[in-house]
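User: My collaborator sent over this chain with a note saying "see what the structure looks like." That's all I know about it. Can you take a look?
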Amino acid sequence: MYKTIIVVDSDDLLMEGEAFSVISFETYLSDYPKANEPKTRIINLCDTEHYLSRGYYCSLLAEARQHKVLPNVSTINDLRELATTSTAGIALPLPAKLFPIDGGNKTIEMLTFFGWTESEPWKKLARELFEKYPAPILKFCISLDQHGLSLQVGRYAFAQLNPHERELFLARLHKFTDLVWRTPASQKRQRWDMAIMVNAEEKLPPSNKDAIKRFVKAAAKVGIHAETINAMKSTQIPQYDALFIRETTAIDHPTYRLSRKAEQEGLVVIDDSTSILRCCNKVFLHDAFSYNRVPSLKTRVVIGSKESDLDEIETWFSYPMVVKIPEGSFSLGVFKISDRKELQKKLGELLKETALILVQEFLYTDFDWRIGVLNGRPIYACRYHMARNHWQIYNHKASRTSAGGFETLPTFEAPKAVLDAAVKACAIVGNGLYGVDIKQKGHQVYVIEVNDNPSIDHGVEDVYLGDELYMLIMLEFANRLEKRGR
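Assistant: Without extra context I'll predict from the sequence alone. Here is the result:
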């Protein structure tokens, strides 16, 4: 449970609120931190325009006192830096159609309060600016001239607001503290708060809805209140103690950015950003497997599609062979190549999108092993069979994506060589939750890849362990939270 405190420049700006306390900077400086205080969040409404001002020190002290603060020092510095440049240089969508093109220049200025603004057409931009620069009040200016649109963003002090603007701000402040930073009474019995990141629009999510429900129930049994969020609610991250990502991850993607943000806020995170970086790039995995002698299929990194490149590839591999993009999941970005013409065409296409391509020997098996590993320990084992009349588990070329069957086994029934290879591969990546794909041919095993957010669906991976699978993962969160401390 968090307590929310609003800090203002002086007693002249004090206000009342049911969901928060309001104090002056002098009070915050002299009376805090307090012994045995609950977890505390600070909304800093002091003027932060100048370096080493009261507003600057308010956020700096809050971070030193382990109080969650909005804005934090990094945001204050970012906004100060923007104020010294002619343009913000922010890559955000600007709806040019909202400007009447009449041959003249036009400028729009607007205030945002916790990512909200009065003007309906600019609400999305306001939210995105708040995501990038989380501060209670922002002022943005959009200009249109013969060179196109430009956007400038800056800080704005509570003391500068006129009566109407202050009324709007206070309404949004109450809404923000009630809906975002306030822990409902029914949830206060839990020791920790967890955000489970999901994407309702995702076609192949790592966990189905029934699995998410079981994660939430298991979390409650170990003292964690868990609730789902999506990428649009990333500004709520500071209110939680842990983040569990159940959306397919990628590096240039909100999942990676949210993982980094959560780590910087001190949350316990699975998938951690390092695991996402390492698992989402097959070039890293190939190099790491080779260096650490993890058993894997013969693989080469390719950077060209000229005739000489094809000649060299053909000295390494026979047809068919497999071509992979560095980033991909659920069998996407993996292609079976049957001849030289097809190889040249596919390499040419893919090298327009990425500087490196992986070429790998083709090994057909009736199934792939998937071993779930948590903090270096195998927790489930599945055999995923190939999709019907296809060489992969998923067939994306069908009229609708199809998958093969599966068998879920206790880990002690999986071959020891498979388990050992899975644990060795995960040790290269980290100590999170991973799914290791392994092919087996006779007594020989080959690690294909390590997935940082493996599939855990109700009715598939949990067939053997049932609810115990969800408990194992939530107990790992609870243990890490206990070690982390407050």
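A starting point for your reply to your collaborator: Residues 182-188 have pLDDT under 50 and may be disordered.
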